[in-house]
Amino acid sequence: MSYHHLTISERIRIKVLSILGYSTRFIAKFLHRHHSTIARELSRNKIKNEYVSTSAHNNYLKRRKNSSHSSKYNEYLSNLISEKLHENWSPEQISNALLNGKLSFKTIYNWIYIGKLKDISLKNLRHKGKRKKKETRGKFLIGNSITTRPKDVKSRKTFGHWELDTIVSSRGKAKACLATFVERKTRFYVVIKMKDRTAPSILKAIKS
């Protein structure tokens, strides 16, 4: 299961799948999340009995901003944790063996996710346990990868940068899927049905 918080892209998929009538357990399995995470997300972010993904994500960002004021983060601690992660330590080992539990491993995961640790991303973490099953969805970026685009794309300061994601049902052998287009600054999104995930179908969805 994933340790980091739900992303806006995941929240949009939750909304689409819930509208299509899929259960919380199916959505959790589809996103490789715990069932309780999806159930809690759907129950606490409804407006007039309807889950609103953009409102849910904005509420999360507000909570994260408010909690950052009481953070234990400092440059020395950041450098120390980054050094140990590069040495292949896990956040759990750093929390328990190095810091004697004074900083939770969840906080370390959160710092990694929001980019507080220098030159560290989730890719630096050790992978334990069973291999993750291949996902039944595809992800495409319109244009260059987000990581190679200008900094204002990542900070969402300018309008017009879109991400494309696809949702594919694991039921039956149908090739049809849904394409979700997300504008990074406003988080405005559009959902378009495609007959398959071939390049011509994707281009047709983009042009529409």
Automatic annotation (TrEMBL):
InterPro entries: IS30-like_HTH, Transposase-Integrase, Transposase_IS30-like. GO terms for molecular function: transposase activity. The keyword Ligase does not apply. Keywords: DNA recombination. GO terms for biological process: DNA recombination; transposition. One of its GO terms (cellular component) is cytosol. Residues 2-45 form the Transposase IS30-like HTH domain. PANTHER family: TRANSPOSASE, TRANSPOSASE INSI FOR INSERTION SEQUENCE ELEMENT IS30A-RELATED. This is Transposase and inactivated derivatives, IS30 family.
